[in-house]
Amino acid sequence: MAKVILENIYKSFPHRSGKATPSNRSSHLKKDEKPDRTSVLRSINLTIEDGEFMVLVGPSGCGKSTLLRLIAGLEELTAGNIWVGDRLVNALPPKERDIAMVFQNYALYPHLSVYDNIAFGLRRMGIDEGKTSIMQDILAQMSRKLPRKLRYLTEKEKAIDERVRKVAQLLQIELLLDRLPKQLSGGQKQRVALGRAISRNPQVFLMDEPLSNLDAKLRAQTRSQIVKLQRQLGVTTIYVTHDQTEAMTMGDRIAVMNGGEIQQLAKPLEIYNRPANRFVAEFIGSPPMNFLSVRVDSPITLTHSQFHLTIPDLWSQWVSSYQGRSLLLGIRPEHFAIATPSPHNLQVQVDLVEALGNETYIWVHPLEEPDFSLIARVPSDAQIHLGDRIWLSPMLDKIHLFDAQTDMAIWQE
Predict the structure, then answer these.
(1) Among residues 318, 297, 324, which one has the least CA distance to residue 412?
(2) Which residue has the higher pLDDT, 335 or 225?
(3) Which of 20, 103, 200, 304 could, after both became Cys, cross-link 107 (CB 3.0–4.6 A)?
């Protein structure tokens, strides 16, 4: 087990011929970008504690998988340092970093059994169980295709066999050891891929969207299995996903990424309750947060064209500097309540009703803004129909406020 430290990581790629050139990109460059290269990671500073489950989450193209590949040694750093434990691993090849990686597509050898897929890495890295003669190695190699009971096992193979069976028992795949990957379900393949990583007993696990190929039910089951397994083994784990549900339920901490930068690093509930900017607020939470433009009329009064709010006094320390200016009011769908007519509430018309059984989501628009859509969650027994006009009230202790120019949460300013 080991701490992983990322110091000022940068990664860029040269432009492909026929793509963007300095002449057509120069006006869009950030200060740390070079005109002949595409920057995909900028100024990444992150410490993953020993035994921590860290989740990197963000949309496609944000750089999260590239960062994972840099840690694994599959990509070359442009700048910065990567520490695993007390070792600087920048110049080390992947096999010397003591890291195991689980890929999105499982990456199992199709011609090898489950047993041999798990044992493959152990045979490559070697296990110190005393010297074996050349003849013993030849006998072991020749008998590998025989039924397991007829194989000749060297001391090294006995040690490998013991570890493979221990991992198989841990993952509950003992009955699958003689099958080929094509004979396995998606969930079984994923457990074999996990087993191959676990068997090496690495200092760090890297997981690159390992559940994305599974159906919803199997994804939920495997998600809980991975969390339990990580806690049982205590291995430092870095997990990449674009699914905010996985991020919220699996990680000790979450690093939300966008545009090659970390937008916010915190525990799951802190990110949900105190998003650092509009992107984080929109990305974490499903359905996403609603945003309304409001004007600040006093340190605790916000005005919209169709309602006005008197917000809690604690906001005055940040809102007071925005007197007479606009802010973005953020309200999550679950923080609307059906209300009675009032100047403090918003009247809307229902455009769509999604009844999920345990809850209902409604898509609505303010009466004066037919092209502006909002989402609200209401109780499943609420009698709401398409075309209804209802009043919604935001829960004032759950609102979020963002600078209209920078998109930063005003408590960050």
Answers:
(1) 318
(2) 335
(3) 103
**Which amino acid would we find at residue 320?**
S
CA distance 279 to 264: 10
Evaluate whether 328 touches 289 at the Cβ level (below 8 Å): no
Q: Which residue has the tokens 């998003």?
A: 275
Does residue 189 contact residue 108 with C-beta atoms inside 8 Å?
yes
Are 16 and 232 a contacting pair, CB within 8 Å? no
Helix, strand, or coil here: 145? helix
CB atoms inside a 10 Å sphere around CB 366? 20
List the end-to-end C-alpha distance of the chain, in Å, as a whole number: 38
For the segment 367-382, the average pLDDT, to the nearest whole number, is: 92
Binned at pLDDT 50, 70 and 90, residue 17 comes out as low
Dig out the tokens for 105 from the structure: 């597509």
Percent share of the chain, pLDDT over 90: 63
What distance lies between CA 83 and its chain's CA centroid? 21
- Mean model confidence pLDDT for the chain: 88
Report the alpha-carbon distance of residue 58 to residue 81 in Å, rounded. Answer: 23
Least confident of 4-13, 39-48, 125-134: 125-134
In degrees rounded to 5, what are phi and psi of residue 7? -115, 110
* Alpha-helical runs (H) found in 73-206: 114-125, 134-142, 155-171, 186-199
Helices (H) and strands (E) in the chain, counts: 11, 20
Instruction: Give yes or no for a contact between 331 and 400, defined as CB atoms under 8 angstroms apart.
Output: yes
- Name which residue leads in pLDDT, 134 or 133: 134
Alpha-carbon distance of 289 to 211, in angstroms, equals 25
